[in-house]
Write a structure and sequence with these properties.
Elements: H1 3-9, H2 11-15, H3 17-25, H4 62-70, H5 74-89, H6 93-108, H7 113-139, H8 141-152, H9 165-199, H10 205-220, H11 226-235, H12 240-250
Helix pairs in contact: 1-4, 4-5, 5-6, 5-11, 6-10, 7-8, 8-9, 10-11
């Protein structure tokens, strides 16, 4: 999602800046606290004459969160969604966090992590096996002799020409070079095609799945800004669903970063 889209979606946060200032000055007037949690040491002045630096997204202002969200920082997009829920539902941060957990779980429902991850796992397993097997197929004499007898049937050099792994590789490279070179060129072409698809705005498999998931989430929660929901959904990891199921069985809560609270 582009910076302009996220910034536009976050204008609702900026429009409530005056109300937030009033809540800070007189938190009891509206019965609603400030949207974000403030670090317990945030108001303490340190040796530098300013409050200590906090890396917690709860302590960050809206502009900082929008900037981080534009570079696809998932924790920032989570916090933006929580604050957006606070604004829309007019609830406290804790209640908004509970609603956010419902949204996060619905974001993962309807998708089988194992089916989504299957192409990637097959690719990882295949590439790992090919890389490992290629070493003995080129440098290990018994393996080279076995493969030659089984699939190649070329003449075997004299034993004095097969005394070292490098000499074995010279012989094996006669038939190993074509498949290895062709596969390397094929993967290079596929990588180039994917790059051009991204340049044209065409979404590969992962991008298409994330886009469909974000649209589904926006349809299920029409009361919230669809762009904020879609931005959050796009950066949520597919593996979070499996982690959520494990934590649900244990009776614990899990954040969408895959860490237990």
């Amino acid at each position: 999602m582009s910076l302009s889209s996220i910034a536009s979606a976050g204008r609702g946060l900026g429009r409530k800046a005056v109300a937030v200032s009033r809540r800070r000055a007189n938190p009891g007037s509206h019965g609603l606290p400030y949207r974000g949690h403030v670090h317990k040491n945030h108001h303490q002045i340190g040796p530098r004459g300013v409050p200590p630096i906090s890396m917690c997204v709860r302590d960050m202002d809206d502009d900082t969160l929008l900037t981080l969200a534009a570079i696809e920082d998932h924790s920032a997009r989570e916090e933006i969604l929580k604050r957006h829920i606070m604004d829309v539902d007019e609830v406290e941060y804790e209640r908004a966090s509970e609603t956010f957990e419902v949204v996060a779980r619905r974001n993962m429902e309807g998708y089988s992590y194992y089916m989504i991850a299957l192409p990637y796992k097959v690719g990882i397993f295949s590439a790992s096996m090919l890389g490992i097997v290629s070493l003995p197929m080129v440098f290990h004499l018994p393996t080279v002799e076995w493969f030659n007898e089984w699939a190649v049937t070329t003449d075997v050099p004299a034993l004095r020409d097969l005394e070292t792994p490098l000499e074995v590789s010279i012989w094996a490279w006669n038939w190993m070079e074509p498949p290895l070179g062709t596969l390397s060129f094929l993967f290079l072409c596929l990588q180039y095609i994917r790059g051009q698809m991204v340049n044209l705005g065409l979404k590969p498999y992962t991008g298409w799945i994330r886009s469909q998931r974000g649209q589904k989430l926006a349809d299920e929660f029409p009361q919230y800004d669809s762009r904020i929901l879609a931005a959050y959904s796009e950066t949520a990891n597919f593996s979070d669903y499996t982690q959520m199921k494990k934590e649900a069985k244990k009776g614990g809560k899990t954040s969408t970063n895959g860490k237990s609270d």
